[in-house]
Amino acid sequence: MNMQESLMLANWRQLERNQQRELFNQILLYYVNPLLQIGQTDFVNFTISGERITTLATWIQGERFTFVPGQSTLMVGWANEGAPIDWTTFKPTTTATELTDIAAVQQYVEQFTSAPREATLAPLLVAESALPVDRQVRGIYHSVTGRFTGDQSFFHKYRRELMLALQPKTDVLNPFMTDAVEAQVTEHVSLRVLADGVSYQACELIPTTYGELKQRIEQRGFDLPTPAEWEYLANSGQTTLFPWGNQLVHTGAVKNGFNLTFASDRSYELTDDLGVLKLGPAASQGEALIERQLPHSAYYQLPMAVTLEQALPAAQYAYRKVIRVTFD
């Protein structure tokens, strides 16, 4: 079995851990820009339709990426026909909405979700979190050791600004307790504390257009996900209306089945298609729960588009990087 076949889900799940790690190391060697610094790699688990799959995750230039095996054929988009949904639970309980019956709710869902279609998924390295469009990750700053791993030219340029941003705002007994600063944005730098409480993801703030952003990440070997890839990843590989199933009530999970986080602040996530933005605000202002919850669906899609030259406000647009493992 060659590398291309091994990286597909049907075969990947059969591999031993040492085989998976060897293949993952080959991906890092041949598909990651050699100028980018690779950090710690770990085995992690995710779940597809109830099946637990072992995979690997690593840090690339201060950003954590998870490997998702490919699939030769999969279905994305919302297919209402035959879906195991009890639509009576979606019926509005308030009159402050135009969705007055079950048929109206179904039509509303279909109007603001992508059409069902067949797609092929290449093996992917996927950023676990999206970033506001004006942020470019440059590395990780370790507040206890004072060490910066990543783009050293960025660190030397903005070192003083970074140090000032992490100064404790109140007196503390321990001089290393900078973890009181969870996030900070200065004129040129954005900082976000990581899970260990003392390391910070450091980003350079660069106002951008869609065209500039795409060119910038492609120069470093990344890309934006296709709409089909985004839907598959956001929905944990399932065909349900929501990542947590076909129930209307949110489970409250922070990460989905692929260990990916998706914003709930009503900003858009970009795809590699100018005409397809994902997430975003509610399509209507009614008080029915489905109107508030539908934006959480991976298939939710407003009739919105951007242009190559359009300036993208960071408060409204975010992006998620992927590395597509292809064998063309």
Task: Please give a structural write-up.
With 328 residues, this protein is α+β, with helices and mostly antiparallel strands. The chain has two domains: 71-129 and 209-324, no CATH class; 135-205. The protein contains eight helices and 16 strands. The strands form four sheets. A five-stranded antiparallel sheet has the order 1-2-3-6-16, with helices on one face. It has a five-stranded antiparallel sheet with strand order 9-8-12-11-10, with helices on one face. The radius of gyration is 21 Å and the shape is globular. The protein starts with a helix and ends with a strand.
Compute the separation of the termini in Å: 18 Å
Biggest sheet layout: 5 strands, antiparallel
In total, the number of domains comes to 2
Strands side by side in the biggest sheet: 1-2-3-6-16
Mean pLDDT: 90
Whole-number radius of gyration?
Answer: 21 Å
Write the layout of secondary structure elements.
Elements lengths: L2 H4 L2 H4 L4 H15 L6 E11 L2 E10 L2 E6 L2 E6 L25 H10 L5 E5 L2 E4 L3 E2 L2 E8 L4 E4 L1 H14 L17 E3 L3 E5 L5 E7 L4 H9 L8 H8 L33 E3 L6 E3 L9 H5 L23 E3 L2 E3 L4
Parallel strand pairs: 13-15
Antiparallel strand pairs: 1-2, 2-3, 3-6, 4-5, 6-16, 7-15, 8-9, 8-12, 10-11, 11-12, 13-14
